[in-house]
Fold Acyl-peptide hydrolase.
Amino acid sequence: MPKKLLCLITLSLLCCSLAQAQNPAKRRLRPSDVYRLQTISDVRVSPEGSWISYTLSSVDSVKNKRNSDLWMVSWDGQQTIQLTNSPDGESSGKWSPDGKYISFVSSRNGLTSSQIWLMDRRGGEGKQLTNLKSGDLNDYAWSPDGKKLVLVVKSPVDTSKSKDPKPYLLDRYQFKQDVEGYLQNRPVHLYLFDVASKNIDTLTTGNYEDSSPVWSPDGSTIAFVSNRTADPDMNSNTDIWTVEAKAKGVVRRITTWTGRDSQPVWSPDGKQIAYLQSTSKEDYIMYDQAILAVVSKDGGEPKLLSKTLDRPVASPRWTDEGNIMALVTDDRQRYISQFSVLTGKNTLVIGGNRSFGSIEKQKANNWVVTMSDPQMPSEIYALEKGVLRKLTKHHEELINSLDLATVEGFTSKSKDGTTVSNLLYRPSDAQSKQKLPTIFFIHGGPVSQDEYSFDLSRQMLASTGYAVVAVNYRGSNGRGLDYCKVISGDWGNKEVLDILGAADYLTQNGLADAENLGIGGWSYGGILTDYTIATDTRFKAASSGAGVAMISSMYGVDQYILQYEHELGSPWKNFDKYVALSYPFLKADKIKTPTQFMVGGSDFNVPAVGSEQMYQALRVLGIPTQLIVYPNQFHGITNPSFQKYRFEKYLEWFGKYLKK
């Protein structure tokens, strides 16, 4: 071989090696990646606008626990600093009004309850500020002058020193709640804490649960949310109230809507309060969408700024000019819009196929937001005159190493002619018209939706070669109130039509293999999995998480007593309706789909009995099935190793029955 040619070949091989080293092959997502994903929350802007603090929650795989620490990033994005790094965890970081300190909540140093700590922003260890002897700290907020804090404290449980637990003595209308367990009478009140003297004064009293305190700009008044009806368990009627920021201050009711009022925010001049009002004024509010409202600080008739928008609004924030920025949930996306208080006009600020999660004012027309898209988990961004600039990059290293599924939207028609919006996840190497084994992974709620945001579950399923479908069935909240509430009292009917309509569309268009379809989901997604496999036998495998199929057996067992009474009525009056909605269990002999059931052992939201009944029925009928119970887990599985295990079991079950 000529020497010159040999040199050229050698050089070419060297260049290829360098290119491969600089651009390593990307890999597929795997269950162990749950340990590498982090969560951003509590985003706050410093008073002068040059720094943004936030809580970053990450997983310690060795200790098998999630831990949260305080971080901050500069407005120009050039500096990212971790402020705390203790094994106890810190959260709810908030800037002192003078910008010199960051307060946070922690039970560090062996404390048996959470307290507020204070840290000099320039560095150094945090110092304990509060020393609450009893009760649980739920929330807090700084006064504008930095001299006081308003504390939200839940009354203590029985302080008996007996090592033996006492029986629960229950007399509440709603007597159980997921995570909290059995509900005793533990009112939640507001207290005034003096930072210098550490004295505490009581602001609110009574057998109520007060929350969401916000100070007026002049520091004289605190607005808060409370249900002060005769029996708050029996309705959803929260109102906006105010209390003078002093001991024995006068408490005044500001709103009178018999539905739900929440999230109060004072206007810059202190004359008005923006808040969210429910569309419905009924006792139980499930199928609803919040309306942006503004009311005088003295009460009166509110202005309903987004009533004609027919989309849910969240996180209202005042602009310097007296308008309101807010998040709007639309079809498969959440965008940022500005509302004129004078005219009610709504102007899009920024949208697109992505999902914004929070918004905070920096200064003038600049904002700090969190945002996620199908290829990137939520990060913090600067929003300058409608243009995004990324500030945090906690997920870039992981995401840049992964070969993620592509995500695209499509619409399908159900048997009754309804148009349904969906998302389709396909492995990146799939050909445009390749027919793939397909899993329909159904969202919970039902009042929520699948968006153009990063979805770990669907990406995980797609990573092993499946097409994965997210169906925004009727009941989802991005298509208007009528689309959302049409399923009230009629569960498992129209939603199943929508799922089957999406399946028909994909199989008829050659995108899904009709002989290799699977279905699964969690919570209402698990419930719809049960309804669907009892309706149609086309699915070759199913995974029902935290579901229920025998509705007639759940009255008084879960936390939804208001929903049962409101939508279905009492069983002794409307038992036929309960029986009709229990068809997946009562007609379990029609099910032919091998089905896996999963549930948290301590779930009071959709208790384990719902999954156990279906597992037992299929086991008796000889249909392949398995039951996985996660010990000491509530409705959401939070144990990191269990999260990893759940993905492994999903992939194992679908892999057993779906051919690739």
Q: What stands out?
A: Confidence is low (pLDDT under 50) at residues 4-22. The longest strand covers residues 512-522. The radius of gyration is 27 Å.
